[in-house]
TrEMBL record:
This is Phage portal protein. Pfam families: Phage_portal. It comes from the Bacteria. It comes from Thermoactinomyces daqus.
Length: 404
């Protein structure tokens, strides 16, 4: 029975992770946490595609804690970057938050702290059970969370809240799927109509006989035709004096592709994503993949990235840490790298003109630093930037260049 004891202890430990002082979310164990089983996200491939692209792109960006441009570390960074909770990696945590933000308009995560006030766990919350409220006395923002055994209230500094744009006087983000309600209904109606047309369109034929036939003989001919067609796997035998012409049936409406393109365009507009990200390249031209990705990063990802960074900085770092130069930052340059030739030219110009250090290039390429690579250099040929110009090759004591 040792295995049963271990299993019981493991289950109790898992439940403990959902329950603690001031919170109890055990009622959410085993439930559909993100509400996508029967939602638009699970039934519309265009919306699924755009949300997948956004959430995967954000979760794939390198995230680090910096202190005055140098990589740093503390307990909050370790929790966020390596293991937000016992059930999720950092990738899963950020991707799920971004997925639910794009589906519901808002995503939340509870910040659990230890006795020293340090971040100990980040637990995603079901947005259907969270409601922002204001304290009428202090004006502070609180979050009402409906749990299994009652209602709980958390101060806004203990809840990570990521949202789409809000309406006038509101605090909750507007759900993109609500904005797309009419578009989704129209797209679904077109698809349902086309499917019904396809399912209700059996093979039809026109039979031409050389002589007139009465009603009784006509019915026998039809019955015999049906039987012969079924028994012979669709093969027909055309007798002398009989003509058989199939009736052409169009299963899909002529403008179905135009309808799908309009849907993709509307979805792209609502999610602020370039249409080419949804495989709609009509009327668009890009000279390089770098240009395409730059548009996506600048117009779509940067506002999202800034929201996450500022929320992490404000609520996961103390005022003293922020004043000391600590901040979280996503590295969006990972999406902006060009091809090998372009990237090599970029590195070479950066090093030879003295604004990029060799070791910084090696760090970008995941290579270890080398001695001497922490200095800035100038071409001619690559002297340390702090070197006395009079010591450079070909320069006399008076500072004039020598000639060979």
């Amino acid at each position: 029975m040792r295995w049963f004891t271990k299993l019981k202890a493991a289950i109790n430990g898992a439940i403990t992770g959902w329950k603690g002082q001031g919170f109890d979310f055990t009622s959410w164990i085993g439930r559909t946490f993100w509400g996508i089983d029967n939602s638009t996200l699970a039934t519309n491939e265009t919306i699924f595609s755009v949300i997948t692209r956004l959430s995967n792109s954000l979760a794939s960006l390198p995230l680090k804690l910096y202190r005055n441009y140098d990589i740093a570390s503390n307990q909050a960074a370790d929790i966020l970057i390596n293991g937000p909770n016992a059930n999720m990696t950092s990738f899963e945590f950020i991707r799920n938050l971004e997925t639910i933000r794009n589906e519901k308009g808002n995503s939340y995560a509870l910040i659990e702290r230890d006795i020293r006030g340090q971040v100990a766990r980040l637990t995603p919350l079901n947005p259907d059970y969270v409601e922002p409220v204001f304290d009428t006395d202090t004006g502070d923002l609180w979050y009402q969370v409906i749990g299994n055994k009652g209602t709980y209230y958390f101060h806004n500094m203990d809840i990570l809240h990521f949202k789409h744009i809000i309406g006038s006087g509101g605090i909750k983000g507007i759900s993109p799927l609500k904005v797309l309600t009419n578009t989704n209904d129209f797209d679904k109606a077109v698809r349902d109509f086309s499917l019904k047309e396809m399912q209700s369109a059996p093979n039809s034929f026109i039979l031409k006989y050389a002589a007139n036939v009465d009603m009784e003989k006509r019915q026998r001919v039809i019955d015999d035709f049906k039987r012969f067609y079924q028994d012979n796997g669709g093969i027909l035998f055309q007798e002398p004096g009989v003509e058989i012409d199939p009736i052409e049936r169009k299963f899909i409406a002529a403008d179905i592709f135009t309808s799908e393109r309009i849907t993709r365009s509307r979805v792209a507009n609502v999610f602020n994503v370039p249409a080419h990200m949804l495989n709609d390249s009509e009327g668009q031209s890009y000279s390089s993949m770098e240009q395409l990705m730059r548009e996506f990063v600048q117009l779509t990802l940067m506002p999202i990235v800034r929201q996450y960074e500022q929320e992490f900085n404000r609520k996961l770092l103390s005022p003293a840490e922020r004043q000391d130069g600590f901040y979280f930052k996503f590295n969006v340059n990972a999406l902006l790298r060009g091809d090998t030739a372009t990237q090599s030219d970029y590195y070479m110009k950066g090093i030879r003109t003295g604004w990029l250090k060799p070791n910084e290039v090696r760090q970008l390429e995941d290579l270890p630093p080398e001695p001497g690579g922490e200095k800035l250099y100038l071409s001619g040929d690559l002297y340390p930037i702090d070197m006395d110009p009079s010591l450079r090759k070909g320069v006399k004591a008076g500072g004039n260049a020598t000639t060979n």
